[in-house]
Amino acid sequence: xxxxxxxxxxxxxxxxxxxxxxxxxxxxxxxxxxxxxxxxxxxxxxxxxxxxxxxxxxxxxxxxxxxxxxxxxxxxxxxxxxxxxxxxxxxxxxxxxxxxxxxxxxxxxxxxxxxxxxxxxxxxxxxxxxxxxxxxxxxxxxxxxxxxxxxxxxxxxxxxxxxxxxxxxxxxxxxxxxxxxxxxxxxxxxxxxxxxxxxxxxxxxxxxxxxxxxxxxxxxxxxxxxxxxxxxxxxxxxxxxxxxxxxxxxxxxxxxxxxxxxxxxxxxxxxxxxxxxxxxxxxxxxxxxxxxxxxxxxxxxxxxxxxxxxxxxxxxxxxxxxxxxxxxxxxxxxxxxxxxxxxxxxxxxxxxxxxxxxxxxxxxxxxxxxxxxxxxxxxxxxxxxxxxxxxxxxxxxxxxxxxxxxxxxxxxxxxxxxxxxxxxxxxxxxxxxxxxxxxxxxxxxxxxxxxxxxxxxxxxxxxxxxxxxxxxxxxxxxxxxxxxxxxxxxxxxxxxxxxxxxxxxxxxxxxxxxxxxxxxxxxxxxxxxxxxxxxxxxxxxxxxxxxxxxxxxxxxxxxxxxxxxxxxxxxxxxxxxxxxxxxxxxxxxxxxxxxxxxxxxxxxxxxxxxxxxxxxxxxxxxxxxxxxxxxxxxxxxxxxxxxxxxxxxxxxxxxxxxxxxxxxxxxxxxxxxxxxxxxxxxxxxxxxxxxxxxxxxxxxxxxxxxxxxxxxxxxxxxxxxxxxxxxxxxxxxxxxxxxxxxxxxxxxxxxxxxxxxxxxxx
Length: 762
Known about the structure:
Oligomer: single chain
Strand order of the largest sheet: 3-5-1-12-9-10-11
Largest sheet: 7 strands, mixed
Helix content: 25-40%
Structural class: alpha+beta
Number of strands: 29
Number of helices: 18
């Protein structure tokens, strides 16, 4: 049951009046005279609070983001007014009758140009358009001037949307009996959203209840509090009946969370033998018009810069980062947060250096990857790669894809036949980062732990409540497996509950590949506490010494007999006189978990892809896709495979299809599936996956996250494969998505240069 399936008596729908211009002064909003009471603007909510978003740093500039536009509009699609009616269609009809007057201003649409002197400013009190600008430098910076060889390239990862199967939705009503606002919300973290809603509405948190039913995908986009959600809740407090807003697909592409949109201008330094020395340059992140609560998009630039060295033994890093405000919908997190862009830049650069030196790209990586004997390895950016064998991952992927066969096919290609190329990309995926990491980032919310409540009922069955949110990851399976392992019962006896702030312990939700590390750890350690009490009660009932009994198959066993969990639970819950003297009744514990080291652990892997490129059209077809990955201990290998395959599907979208371009006036040019391309079943290959298992040393069970890795490497691997197909003319493909037009134009330009060079030599 999704938010759109929630039905309440008296429910009415909301449609928003949205800005048709990217930047302008909001002069007036005129409500229809006969329906004024059903139209709401920001002036109808005197008590709404605007939340500060972004890191708690003085250098980070605040961009107040009201629930409905106030004073100015700063992107096409920004909500200006909300209209309430008995159906969505009638609400939309009412919205068309609202008259809005805007004094249009010049739009800022290019993040690099936005930082130039004289660029229009989104916020008049800012000195320029940067939310924050910082330089990240580390290592031996003298290498940049002393390096014998340098190569400069520009890379671009274009903007797109998160496009989850279920789009955003919220149903809100005031429960007069319980005196609380009940909010059904499609979200990745109900407890954090409750915190934000309570602050925005000026309510105590115990008067706000957030219920996240089934959630049809999130990928980061549902992990931020957005203005429409606040507006719907504020309206619910005024009208006295339930109200609902279900985002439509055009609203999603127009005004929901956008992602990617990275600009890289980089120089890599290296030795003549291909040894990488360092990387320097500028990174611009187009963050859109506002920072989203709680953390904004400030991490995007720092994570991009920090991950630029990748898993390579570089000795120097110097990157100027700019998180820039533009007249576009705000940027939010999306599967991989910054790492797909960083991976694209460094992996393309590795191939460009290999091309420049005439080295096989596979061999280039072998020379520079961190070795197993060097683990744990701290990169020049300060990231601690904890365990693993990156060389083995590369070798395995290379064998799966069969480089020699592809090279033979390339040599045997006849004129007019499609070109074939092979591409590699090695990625790292940080997960399990807790208090140390988030505090270092000055985050407003520090998700340093997760919690679990484990309760055995009188019949011996178990309910477990957690603060994370399942939106497709299979938590009901993996968390039940962990509890079953600790409790010695069948997973079918366990129910996992989440998604209701009234019944679950506080948690931070599901994001950053953290659930199996944090929630899995919390379920594990709390289940062990429960198992220990079960063992003590069982020993008492068996009249045996506690150290002489064991748990097995839903019972406590001793040399003289056994007692089942049902009888033990009956004693603990409803027959307290049967308990050991002084023991409290109930079989229930709530606990939290954070890894012993909270700087994070690293999954990693190598993607290898073979593509076919039509020289005449620029069309790209994936022929083969192989992955060699290591996410530590796998709780459920089938779910791991599903996460990898699903991430790759989205990575293919980033690499080949998905893009929201803008014209000079800030108008988005892809607001329906007629213009916004996505990979479908016929474009997504069946990926062959090989697993290594190098357990983490600091987490329960040695687990590492796996949710984002699949999406990080595909754009880089695909671009490298397309470039490999045009090795003879040294074409570069440094902008995503690799649309047929971009591929064709880059190839034609390279061929023209090659022909001109040949004529010059002649």
